[in-house]
Amino acid sequence: MSDDKNITTDKNAVASPVANASPAAASATDAVAKVTDASAGAAKAAGAAATVAKDLYGDARQKRGRGGRDNGRPRGRGRNDRGDDRGRDEMEQRILEIARVTRVMAGGKRMNFRACVALGDKKGNVGVGLGKGADVTMAVNKAVNQAKKHMVNVPMVNDTIPHAVIHKMGAARLILKPAKKGRGIISGGVTRVIFELAGIKNITTKTLGSKNKINNARCTIEAIEKLARTSVKEVKEVKEVKEKDGDNKGK
Out of 3.30.230.10, 3.10.310.40, 2.40.37.10, 3.90.1300.10, which CATH number does the structure's domain 153-229 have? Predict the structure, then answer.
């Protein structure tokens, strides 16, 4: 019996360390789980921050090439990019007409908008475009793109046109005459808007025939294309020749 008692006491002695060790193991497991959760949360936060940075600044690793350059280009903006932005900013647009038009289809009528836009930089370049779209914004954007593709240059001498022009297109008839300094733009309707965007300060015009704004705008652009490119010296020489002829006739 003494042996059995010894064995029992030995079993209790062995079981007590195991029982005492189980709470410590559980606490260690909890600590490991907390650390794992914290690392997972930090990884998620880092991933979210990387996603936001990628959306804002783009993927720098893909864009950046050798030698600290982006796609083989130096950092910063080049001269050509600056010039393009300046050219876009300097362009001014005016809406000449906005109308709602309908197209008869098999199932009924389809409503659209038509916009006529004049575009110019007030430095001698001007254009007129026509666009249609489901809404006004789309029609205006199409008209602006068309005007950019069909820009014309206005020859100027002393802030006016070099000579008089009479042009007829369809039912529209237009007369352009140069003016002295200080006279201003004596014109009306779409013709005035076009010459303001072109940068001409002194001119006299008269629109005859049609009252359609689109036809008058196209007639104005065609009249500008008919202007001859002359310099100030050539104009002075022509004036001197006319003055000499007048003096000879007077004698």
Answer: 3.30.230.10
